[in-house]
Amino acid sequence: MKNHINFNFNVLTIVFIVSVLIGANYFNFAYKAFIPAVALISGMILTSIHNDNSIVSYTKKWSPQILSYSIILLGFGFKPGNILKVSIAGLSYTIISICGTLILGLLIGCLLKTRGKISVLISSGTAICGGSAIAAISPIIRASHEDTAIAMGSIFLLNAIGLLAFPLLGHLLHLNQIQFGTLAALAIHDTSSVVGSCIAYGQEALIWGTTIKLVRAIWIIPISLAIAIIYSRMKQDSKPATYQKSRKPWFIFWFILASLLIALIPSLQVVGEQLKHSGESLFMVALFFIGYNVPYTSIKSVGKKVLLQAVILWISVSIVVIAALKLNILG
Fold this sequence. Notes:
Elements: H1 2-26, H2 35-49, H3 53-75, H4 80-112, H5 116-127, H6 131-137, H7 145-172, H8 177-187, H9 191-201, H10 203-217, H11 220-235, H12 251-264, H13 269-292, H14 296-300, H15 304-326
Helix pairs in contact: 1-2, 1-13, 2-13, 3-12, 3-13, 4-5, 4-10, 4-15, 5-6, 5-7, 5-15, 6-11, 7-9, 7-15, 8-9, 8-10, 8-15, 9-10, 9-13
């Protein structure tokens, strides 16, 4: 009976918080810039107060799907020309940043003597797209659940910090919308935190940040294939293709199709803008669910060496990107 009451209480609390987040975002609340951070933190606080395993299982299952759906809906408000322009502009430094981050991350891991598999996960998560990259690469290198959880915990902690700190940093450095979108896409790990910080900064930052980040996310596939081949040769394994079980970012292609649909049928532009706003609201729900799945205990379990590697790599990448922006090497 007590468990049933707790379950109902948590469900009602979640419904209330989600309703407030959607309403505040949809009606252009005065403090809209803070809603992504509020969504994430409120999820973390609620699960720390009372972690309900039955709800966790549902939110863990639905959070990546809701995030995918929200990004697809955002596509209805993006012009294909802008997506193509940003993709072409960001392709060269996306490739350079991914390769550079992977190499630097592994070197830092060697210097700190971080366990090999965790070092690969941290480097891949920072280079590509955070938790999604870690989830894709973990089965390839046969990382233990503990190693995966530790890597996820460190990346999530930095994501939460990035979501809160980067908009403030952008204003402090007087970055314009395009510069901030580029910084967020290249320096923040997960797509969720990139989109959240860009929503807080402005609509043009949202276009640039989301598009460049989705271009980066596509690199999960070739990087996973490369790691699978390298790892199978190192281990002389007769089963080289565990990467086939990894999740592919198909939502990116639906995002592009959504944009093309509105371009081909101009009469749907008003509907497209409404769908885009719905995507932003749904995104807040995804952030809340993501926060609910990472209680304080999981972050607390992250080892010092792992966290130090993740922090050093993250700060190094951020400094390089900011310097490149200020020197007009990037957008």
